[in-house]
Amino acid sequence: MKVQQAGSCTEDCPETALPVLTKQDFKSAQEIKWCPGCGGYGILSEVQGVLPRLGIPREKIVFVSGIGCSSRFPYYLDTYGFHGIHGRAPAIAMGVKCARPDLSVWVVTGDGDGLSIGTNHLIHCMRRNLDLNILLLNNQIYGLTKGQYSPTSEFGKKTKSSPLGSIEQPINPIAIALAANATFVARTITDDLKHMRMVLEAAARHKGTSFVEIRQDCRVFNDEALESFKDKTTRRESWMYLEHGTPIRFGNSGNKGIRVRGMEPEVVVLGENGVETEDLLVHDAHGSSIAQAMFVAELPQPEFPTALGIFRQVEKPTYEDMLVAQIDGAIARNGPGDLAKLLNAGTTWIVD
Amino acid sequence: MEKAFVQVRSATVRFAGDSGDGMQLAGTQFADIASQTGTVVRTLPDYPSEVRAPTGSLGGVSGFQISFGDEDVRTPGDSPFVLVAMNPAALKVNLPELQPGGIIIANEDEFTPENLAKAGYSSNPLSGSELSAFRLIPVAMTRMNEEAVSRHQLPHKEAVRCRNFFALGLTLWLYDQPLQPMLEWLMEKFRANPVLMAANGASVRAGHNFADTAELFRVQHAVARAELPRGLYRRVTGNEAAALGLITAARRAGRTLVYASYPITPASEILHELSKHKEFDVRTLQTEDEIAACVAAIGASFAGAIGATGTSGPGLSLKAEALGLAVMTELPLVCIDVQRAGPSTGMPTKTEQADLQMAVYGRHGESPLVVLAAATPADCFAMAFEAVRLAVTYMTPVILLSDSFLASSAEPWRVVSPDELPDLRSAQRPTQEEFAPYRRDPVTLSRPWVVPGTPEREHRIGGLEKADITGSVSYDAANHQRMVELRARKIEGIARDIPAAHVEGAQEGDLLVIGWGSTYGAIAAAVEEKVRAGRRVGHLHLRYLNPFPANLGSILSKYARILVPENNRGQLRSMIRDRYLVDAAGLSKVEGRPFRITEIEEGIESMLGGQSQ
User: Which terminus of chain A is more solvent-facing, meaning fewer CB atoms within 10 Å of its CB: N or C?
Assistant: First the structure.
């Protein structure tokens, strides 16, 4: 770590007069225990890369997690960290943030931790719009408990606990986040680190709850999860990137789009049957309603590609700002609390 | 008309009516006035669990009991001497508790055929011989109240609502209590509504005047004043006192209070009370569930605040895993359990003490923490403060046990001056040694509380086992053994930092009665009575249940026998037998109601058997 000279701020350091931190400063001494080839390494590396760009002193960053492979995350970062209990990270983070709104608080969770045992906390955290960054590492399987289906596993998935195939419909993390009115909702993927970096940085800079689903596979128990993305011939057919204000385009030649008639989406090809760019659905991440983002998130699959990018990004007052504003207001009205007055309140009498 | 005065040491009055009849308010006012005239006043509300049960139904009866008199008034009273019954249902529900020879003041206007039927009376008890064991004073309260307020031209509904103050006026006369404080209170309360102020004032005066002139009221009762230590007093309920204790402790620790809670009967008033005091930087979080409440408090504590949560039995079950996390991460946390009758949803508005072993033992793994219990409503203040002191001094979760009885009953509290209380800022002693998350203070065995925002101290904690000193994750066999023992020794060592147990009554002798929690008043009164009668009985009341006070064992050896009355099936009793290998006997009551003094006296007598005095 070296100290930045005031006034010599570079592009990497938007704030001035702060120690310049590098990726190296965020690496902890703890040995990383993810399996070789795990997507977690890429996510960790990108997070370590994004943190120094935020201009936040290292001691003011807190990573909170629950239980599962994803939740080992805090140990591998040289920030403050809290490895909690299964599913409860958003609620722990709420306590941290409400006690110290000046801290940059991150939650790392997984598809089991965040969408099974802890769904309740995740939803309520998002609807309150606490200024937290939530990273949900979705590998669509239980890894740490060695290979049972998760709430995001596809219907029919054969696992140790579903040898004949899962009979459960998967949950869509993006739809949950949108329904909870999260103010920043995005999906990225471990096999496109550049995209992940962009999404993570946007999430970190967003004031309010940022929810980022990170698609990854599990080398041991769900190796095929990202097959369609890894395969260059299917990647652009099965996946599409969202960009605010831009028509959604996909396909190997980039000539496919989505046209909406009434509430019915259809895949169209530019130039075919007179389809022009103006006919394509234009992504709107800033709409006051969640409707369009939800429409894109819930496009039927596999008929439509899976979307990556920022689904929604809107500004709303944060929980902790309003919490502190009520306290400041009470102090402005009543003066700072006077203990003697508090204890002597109500009907009192004197015994001589 | 000549009226007589009777001098009594204490009296118990119960106001009872429909949920909408304003009985709680009338009772509270009576208690305030009696307090100001120098008596000890203890109160206990009893309201239905339904928000609005059908009018006139037995399930909708709301009661408020007041016991007042000299300093020997230890409980809100075994049974009332005066019952104010605003309708037939109120009479029916409360009559079994009334003392033989007691007074019934009944609002005869409400004893209509319809209301009698709702209460299950086939004939009007006011006109038969059914109540001959009592002194019955039927009063046309509804009608006389309406006449009294008629010139204030209130809407009919509002005029009728004043009749609780008519009943209050009657009762104040009966106990020779002054009207003036009541009128002053009305002036303050209805400053913005002079019509209501005047109407309510007219009601209370009318009730008072009627009693003064009517033939029916022949005797006034003068209740003895109490000898209390000098000072400024107020009345507090247990829940109010607990909230004030948390605020005071956080302030004395120089830290923000974060109280996270999920609404649950009978703990919600703590959340309500704390929510009112934002100018003290009290941050109340109403979370999505009990688990979130507990872990949010832990998160707040990790970030350097006083993290606290409150709940009742079902919530304590849900918080069990999170309490284990606080044990493992060694963070300060206060969890107030306002116990109620269980198991499961049980009887949410009724009292019980059956969470003790859950509090002491109810977590997986070796998971020791501090367990305290408040003995009286006002003691909830002292014990909430003590819970915070121990939590921050020893970096440990603390469960403070209260119960439904303590939560809602009120007693006089000599207001403490905040400066009399310990300064909790110095609870953590500075160390010269190099920082490590689990490097312990050699005396307290407490780890340092270094919070996010502190430069060059970045560290990670969590639920996985910690390597001694460094706090790194460790599955090492010898380390686990050592850490389990260290966590246990840390809690055991707290016995050196808490007051020694002391016995009231005989300091040695035939019987020691050991209680904890809200049984204090009933046991104290019963033991005093027995001591006065020459019995060699002592009373020891435990406010520290884990660890026990260091001198407990030596006290036990001074008595031939031990009796442990509890509102459970003998949970403290078995803990005492387990720890000290003594043949403690139990006295169990699990009716959802506190012990009566007489029940404890009978328990003592049956233990002492035919022993001569």
Answer: C
